[in-house]
Design a protein that fits this description.
Number of helices: 13
Oligomer: single chain
Strand order of the largest sheet: 7-6-8-5-9-11
Helix content: 40-55%
Largest sheet: 6 strands, mixed
Number of strands: 11
Distance between the termini: 77 Å
Strand content: 5-15%
Radius of gyration: 22 Å
Structural class: alpha/beta
Length: 357
């Protein structure tokens, strides 16, 4: 076949294909959104609700989102299976809760000694992170988007001060994700409890310490009523992203405008939520100090032990090809971003604090 005949045949084929347009569901639809958050959990429930409200508003009501908090339809840790099975249409949550499905999910939430919120955004939107999130989601029939970030999380609340790495031996502590696995390698008895159960577990002594998010969300949970020892910087979650994940068949049944609305609402929620946490944390920290909370930082030997444990957890998962590709992509982007941020914003902030106090 000569080039002209080939082009003609291709054009006819393309025309025939164009006639077979995708069949999108018609009319107004209500989609069920389940979350890993208790209703009213500061910041995290807020951002899930913002996603729901923005999708409804931007679609002019053609998509209505019915938000079900943890326990209202399924349990906090059951949302992943509910959406993949079609019991619900979408979930909002921290993807590190689902490292049992695939350890690569941690990178779309947070990993120990990993990316800050800004570094994660750089990777996700401009260095291949979103594409890897989509590749991972295809395995489970999901279409996922970053949709929130709480920034650097606190090291947590402890019944006693942590002075050496050995103080973690046998410590009953709540921590999810790869950070929890690392703490387990340091000898802790790690619990992965959903938010609504944490206060009671700490109050009853079922756990001896917990991390949650940061000063504002922690204050709302009331942990300061139980213990006054608070470590303000943790190794486990330097910039914790949350995700909005849609059942892939449901997503593909939406028209392109509706799909774009969901993606846009997720991006809006991501920026809005990070600003929310960073605005509220400083004010809450001052209030906590006023209630007698003692602020602590881990000693360097503890940080070193945490780093060694985190490296061991990463190595344990590197035999999985997709995990390895996600890890290497994230770390390459993090190093590149940090090289500039540390020499620009890092230097500026140190000098600003020195000059103006």
């Amino acid at each position: 076949m000569d080039r002209r005949s080939f082009l003609k045949a291709s054009t006819l084929g393309a025309g025939a294909t164009a006639l077979a347009a995708p069949a999108y569901a018609q009319g107004n639809r209500t989609l069920t959104l389940v979350t890993t958050w208790g209703r009213g959990n500061a910041g995290v429930h807020d951002v899930a609700q913002r996603c729901a409200d923005r999708i409804t508003a931007m679609s002019d009501g053609t998509l209505s989102i019915d938000l079900k908090a943890a326990g209202e339809l399924v349990g906090a840790f059951e949302v992943f299976d509910a959406v993949t099975a079609g019991q619900a249409d979408m979930y909002h949550g921290a993807d590190y809760y689902f490292v049992g499905q695939h350890p690569g999910y941690a990178y779309f939430s947070s990993t120990p000694f990993g990316m800050t919120a800004q570094e994660q955004a750089n990777w996700y939107y401009h260095a291949g992170g979103a594409e890897l999130h989509d590749e991972l989601g295809q395995i489970f029939g999901l279409k996922s988007f970053l949709a929130g970030n709480s920034g650097v999380q606190a090291g947590g609340w402890f019944a006693r001060e942590i002075e050496t790495p050995e103080d973690f031996q046998g410590l009953k502590f709540r921590m999810p994700g790869l950070g929890g696995q690392a703490l387990g390698k340091m000898g802790a008895s790690v619990q992965n409890l959903p938010g609504p159960e944490v206060y009671q577990a700490l109050s009853s002594g079922a756990i001896e310490g917990t991390e949650w998010i940061g000063p504002w969300a922690d204050e709302k949970m009331g942990f300061q009523e139980i213990t006054k020892i608070y470590y303000t910087a943790g190794f486990h979650e330097p910039g914790t992203g949350n995700s909005l994940a849609v059942n892939r068949e449901v997503f593909e049944s939406l028209n392109p405008a509706q799909q774009t609305i969901i993606e846009t609402a997720a991006g809006d929620a991501h920026a809005w939520n990070l600003a929310q946490f960073l605005t509220e944390n400083g004010k809450a920290l001052t209030r906590l100090q006023g209630e007698g909370v003692e602020l602590r930082t881990f000693p360097d030997p503890v940080w070193d032990a945490m780093g060694a444990a985190a490296a061991e957890v990463t190595a344990d998962n590197m035999s999985d090809d997709l995990f390895a590709r996600i890890h290497e992509s994230a770390m390459e982007s993090m190093v590149a971003s940090s090289a500039w941020l540390s020499r620009s914003e890092g230097v500026y902030r140190a000098q600003r604090d020195r000059v103006i106090g």
